[in-house]
């Protein structure tokens, strides 16, 4: 399990918080990311997003491991004013094309991850990191478009 420092537990609707960890880009990273996201979201008591958060984070991490370069990292952040949980995964995939969901063929075994992210997230996108890598983020709105 990644080493993480979890800030003191707060009412998630009142204060921003974030937790992040760095992982090796290997086959274990998506599972470790899913477990960590589930644990953090449950620890902070953010309502109704542990399962969707774990699924979205796992899909983003899988893409980073399969298509990126070097070590990978993730961040789970709560933005109280907007009542949004933001999941961000980044890698050192320098020069990689922008990520876009694509429609896989009916018999394809891969290629649905970003479609899942798009379906579950209130919003998602990507940006270049200062080191030239790529970060992909997704926001979940556990309280709908309002506050908790």
* Helix-strand makeup class: alpha+beta
Report low-confidence residues grouped into runs of 5 or more: none
Strand content: 25-35%
Q: Tell me the number of helical segments per DSSP (H or I, 4 or more residues long).
A: 3
- Count of beta strands: 6
Task: Work out the helicity level.
Answer: 25-40%
User: What is the CA-based Rg, rounded?
Assistant: 15 Å
Average pLDDT across residues? 82
Strand order of the largest sheet: 1-2-3-5-4
Q: So what's the overall shape?
A: globular
The biggest beta sheet is recorded as: 5 strands, antiparallel
Q: In angstroms, what separates the terminal alpha carbons?
A: 30 Å
Run of helices and strands: EHHEEHEEE
Report on this structure.
With 148 residues, the protein is of the alpha+beta class. The chain is built from three helices and six strands. Strands 1-2-3-5-4 form a five-stranded antiparallel β-sheet, covered by helices on one side. Helix 1 runs antiparallel to helix 2 and helix 2 packs antiparallel against helix 3. The longest helix is centred in the middle third of the chain and has 18 residues. The protein starts with 16 loop residues before the first strand and ends with a strand. The model has no long low-confidence stretch (mean pLDDT 82).
